TrEMBL record:
Pfam families: NiFeSe_Hases (PF00374). The keyword tRNA-binding does not apply. This is Ni/Fe hydrogenase subunit alpha. The keyword Oxidoreductase applies. Keywords: Metal-binding, Nickel, Oxidoreductase. Its cofactor is Ni(2+). It comes from the Bacteria. Belongs to the [NiFe]/[NiFeSe] hydrogenase large subunit family. InterPro entries: Ni-dep_hyd_lsu, Ni-dep_hyd_lsu_Ni_BS, NiFe-Hase_large.
Length: 476
């Protein structure tokens, strides 16, 4: 008799979701699904609004990464205006995007996944949370909070507030950065570099301790996609699309972002609100790809900054020469490398006189009826695709977010973990924690909602093939 295990809600992620695991008659894992149980509807209720409003509206998609939507939406607006965004405005947008990477990756590594990595998968959930991390490793928890606060402070300095800043607009940005603010941020950087170095040491220690998990979490071949510069370097704001196959072969390169519909198709399933994008030329079965920090480090030729390139070389020791790093556990490592890279880029930008220029916004009316804005959000490539009428009112909106693009890979990861750690009559905390942590490796961002930071509520149900409830467990 087959059975289904439900894990709901999934905690320490941004948004609401549940997992179901289907067992066959022999008690073996037959399938696993990651269900997103909330509906947002931005693509529908924005119809009829002016594209000028979209940066402010779509930033509300998420309270954790509003900057990513702000920038992608502004870039779509740039395309509708048909203007060249002033170079100082581009540099200022890049600066905010790097600040966003720092604060979001710090949140994911230290505060969301840190309890799993540092306290262990089998630790009592009453302790395996942020409060437990603070009690056991106060210096690490404080470091993560400081690093995130640095990114938030930089965003607030540019946009007047750290959450939902109304700063980047079609054509440029509203304000620049004064010399006093630049010097203050530069003065904080040395301490931030030290924190990242300490985190890298901690993670490398964890790799040895968590070898079973490292070998299982998302360890399967897939495609990887991300933006790269014209020289193939790591890129987070502009650049062109590159897709790398599991054997390391580049199958798409220097594709203009506005041509993304030629690469990406989407499917839907009735059991989740999250879409299933895939690489269109290979179809949904073979076209699974991953985005985000792991993918970006797999598709780029180099990082382009000294410290990040040093770590990137070590990162690539975890794969065969010329091949991508497949294991999703290495998303954590990739986040730390990207924080390092972002700090180096922030230092470079703050030392560039271009930020002192006063022309930071180009003004125009509607010159194009279609605008596509693409940037690299912390969790992966983000697409905003708008169609407007001649008055700038939206007729079509499509948002392709990073979490959706990792959806196929997340589902496969859950199944892989369950197959390795689940036995028919064993529904213990260690198993549930590992399944959840497999999802956290991707740092999914399902909505703008905040998440549980303390105790870890969990409801697990075991159903027979006839739908009868066989067993359940609650964790308040």
């Amino acid at each position: 008799m087959s059975r289904t295990i439900h894990i709901e809600p999934i905690t320490r992620i941004e948004g609401h979701a549940k997992i179901s695991i289907q067992l066959d008659a022999q008690g073996r894992v037959a399938d696993a699904r990651f269900h997103v149980t909330e509906f947002r509807g931005f693509e529908k209720f924005c119809i009829g609004r002016s594209f000028w409003e979209m940066p402010g509206i779509t930033a509300r998609v998420c309270g954790i990464c509003p900057v990513s939507h702000l920038l992608a939406s502004s870039k779509a607006g740039d395309a509708i205006l048909g203007v060249r965004t002033p170079a100082p405005a581009v540099s200022l947008r890049r600066l905010m995007n790097y600040a966003q990477l720092v604060q979001s990756h710090a949140l994911s590594f230290f505060l969301l996944s840190g309890p799993d990595l540092l306290l262990g998968m089998d630790t009592d959930p009453a302790q395996r949370n942020l409060m437990g991390l603070i009690a056991a490793h106060p210096e690490i928890a404080r470091g993560g909070i400081r690093l995130r606060a640095f990114g938030q402070h930089l965003i607030r300095t540019l946009g007047e507030r750290s959450v939902h800043p109304s700063w980047s607009v079609p054509g440029g940005v509203r304000s620049g950065l004064n010399a006093e603010a630049k010097q203050k941020i530069l003065g904080e950087l040395p301490a931030m570099f030290t924190l990242v170095d300490q985190a890298l040491d901690l993670f490398k220690d964890a790799l040895d301790r968590l070898k079973d998990e490292v070998d299982v979490y998302g360890e399967f071949p897939s495609l990887f996609m991300g933006l790269v510069g014209e020289d193939g370097g790591l890129e987070h704001y502009d650049g062109r699309l590159r897709i790398v196959a599991a054997d390391g072969k580049i199958i798409e390169d220097q594709v203009p972002p506005e041509n993304f519909p030629e690469l990406i198709a989407e499917e839907e399933e009735p059991w989740t609100y999250l879409k299933f994008p895939y690489y269109a030329p290979l179809g949904p079965e073979k076209g699974m790809y991953r985005v985000g920090p792991l993918a970006r480090l797999n598709v780029c030729d180099f990082a382009g900054t000294r410290k990040a390139d040093r770590e990137l070389r070590q990162f690539r020791h975890y794969c065969a020469p010329g091949k991508p790093v497949n294991g999703s556990f290495f998303y954590h490592y990739a986040r730390l490398i990207e924080i390092l890279h972002a700090l180096e880029r922030i230092e470079e930008l703050l030392g560039d006189d271009i930020l002192d220029a006063r022309h930071i916004r180009s003004r125009a009316g509607v010159n194009q009826n279609v605008g596509i804005g693409v940037c690299e959000a912390p969790r992966g490539t983000l697409f905003h695709h708008y169609q407007v009428d001649d008055h700038g009112l939206l007729e079509k909106v499509n948002l392709i977010i990073a979490t959706g693009q990792n959806n196929l890979a997340m589902n496969r990861t859950i199944k892989q973990i369950a197959q390795r750690f689940l036995t028919a009559e064993r529904l213990d905390e260690g198993l549930l924690n590992r399944v959840e942590h497999g999802i956290r490796a991707y740092d999914p961002c399902l909505s703008c909602s905040t998440h549980e930071a303390g105790r870890m509520p969990l409801h697990l149900e075991l159903h027979g093939a006839d739908g009868r409830l066989l067993d359940e467990a609650h964790r308040a």
